[in-house]
Amino acid sequence: MTETMERRSCEGVLPAKRNQKGYPTEEEVPASKTKRVDPAQALAAARHEFGEHGGVNMSIEASATFTVMEPETMRRMFSGELGPDRDFFIYSRHFNPTVLNLGRQMAAMEGTEAAYCTSSGMSAIASVLLQLCSSGGHVVASRCLYGGTHALLAHFLPRACNVTTTFVDVSDLAAVRDAIRDDGSTSVLYIESISNPTLSVADVPALSAVAHERGVTVVVDNTFAPMLLSPARLGADVVVHSITKYISGGADVIAGAVCGPAKLVNSMMDLCQGSIMLLGPTMNAKVAFEISERLPHLSLRMKEHCHRALVYSTRMKKLGLKVIYPGLEDHPDHHLLKSMANPDYGYGGILCLDMETEERANRLMNLLQNAVEFGFMAVSLGYYETLMSCSGSSTSSEMSEEAKRSAGISPGLIRMSVGYSGTLEQRWGQFEKALNRLQDSPTALNTKI
Asked: Biased composition, Basic and acidic residues: where in the chain (predicted)?
């Protein structure tokens, strides 16, 4: 990306000094980086332009390529003299006006200089890592991650890119510090704000401080906690999302986002060396429009997800079930999450039930879906219906048995993304019926009550 385009993207936010990775040094991080705010307020300020004919919604720019009126204009665009910051567009794999608008919304929500939206959450994660790492490089990562991310770090990057990863317990700051190599090859500390699926909470400020001492870039997957947590405001450098989940809310699109410094985002779109530009995980403009229309009510949806998850987990615990939820006071990270969370968003919309064995977990899920219609047996999360899956045999199946044990993923762990359809009491009554049926019958037949 040219200097002209980079300067325009970073206007008014470039710090006077930078560390060896090009990001602000710790003493230069503005107060807003650690201040808890309501992201809904920032989103409201990122107002979109009117539609082509004055419509209240922004028009969809569904074109793959864009016309120039003079031959010289095309040359100037390819040289980087004219860019999207001045409403000059070449090709939608590079920049598209509708996708660019969604990126601005995502940057506002996460409190970053810039953001770029991609075709999936995994494409966002992979693109960031490929941009930040070089052959012979090294990553330090949480030992408990989404299975696809774990596979990327443990198997694909070593084979295809000669990039290795050390997986550690990120709650142990000394272990994280020790895992960062003295030879300078460690380029990334990769964590999830709330881990998938065990719901451990990362101490983002402390981990960021440890990483920045050694010039390491902190990348946080915030898919489980949009609105609830703002990792960039807590000190992280880059935030990635699977937009597919809570941000979409409809389980009907696949999408992702990279939110971070303008310098990094622009480098990922560089015509010659940008990971997003050259690998092409482009978001469709129609998808971007759909997501843009849903973002304004994300805060309302998240509050209801979180409220119901807290009520359910509290009641499940009273029934004697082994429930994992950061909103419960006996959760080891309860006070940590409370100290970092943005006000009024609760503790997340996901809870876990440990049924000890996969067979028992499957029987309960079978009853919840097929006997009482409490929710669906399906992967993913953030949908308005409750979604349930046995993590060890589904979304964490890429991990070895040893890795799953190390991460605390038991064979009977049910990950439950709590929806908000129906009334709370209606759904709780269905859950109790299924649980009673499970206790009464060792076989849990696939019939309605």
From this structure: 1-10
Query: CA 67, CA 403: separation in Å to the nearest integer?
Result: 52
3-state class (DSSP) for residue 214: coil
Question: Rounded to whole angstroms, how far apart are CA atoms 246 and 221?
Answer: 13
Could you give the CA distance from residue 388 to residue 367 in angstroms, rounded to a whole number?
Answer: 12
Distance CA 258, CA 131 (A): 12
Query: Which amino acid appears at position 47 of this protein?
Result: R
Burial of 52 per CB tally in 10 Å (0-12, 13-18, 19+): exposed
Kindly give the interhelix angle for 424-440 and 358-370, rounded to the nearest 10 degrees.
Answer: 130
Task: Judge contact between 412 and 438, C-beta under 8 A.
Answer: no
Which residues, including other chains, have CB under 8 Å from residue 299's CB and lie 6 or more apart?
A: 38, 39, 40, 43, 227, 345
pLDDT tens digit string along 211-266? 999 999 999 999 999 999 999 999 999 999 999 999 999 999 999 999 999 999 99
**DSSP E strand stretches across 196-287:** 217-221, 238-242, 256-260
Cross-strand partners of 65: 91
CA–CA gap between residue 42 and residue 230 (Å, rounded): 12
Cα–Cα dist 374/386, whole Å: 7
Question: In Å, how far are 77, 305, 321, 325, 412 from 318, measured between CA atoms?
Answer: 63, 20, 7, 13, 20
Alpha helices in 157-216 (DSSP H): 157-161, 173-179, 204-213
Cα 329 to its chain centre, rounded Å, is 25
State the Cα–Cα distance between residues 17 and 23, nearest whole angstrom.
8
CA 55 to CA 181: how far, in whole Å? 54
What does the alpha-carbon distance between residue 204 and residue 228 come to, in Å, rounded to a whole number? 13
> Backbone phi, then psi, for 384, in 5-degree steps?
-75, -20
pLDDT of residue 401: 75
Residue 388 has pLDDT above 90, yes or no: yes
Q: Are 82 and 76 in contact (CB under 8 A)?
A: yes
Tokens matching residue 385:
């219906």
What are the tokens at 151?
């596979």
Peptide bond into 442 cis (omega under 30): no
Is residue 225 classed exposed, middle or buried when 0-12, 13-18 and 19+ CB atoms within 10 A define those classes?
buried
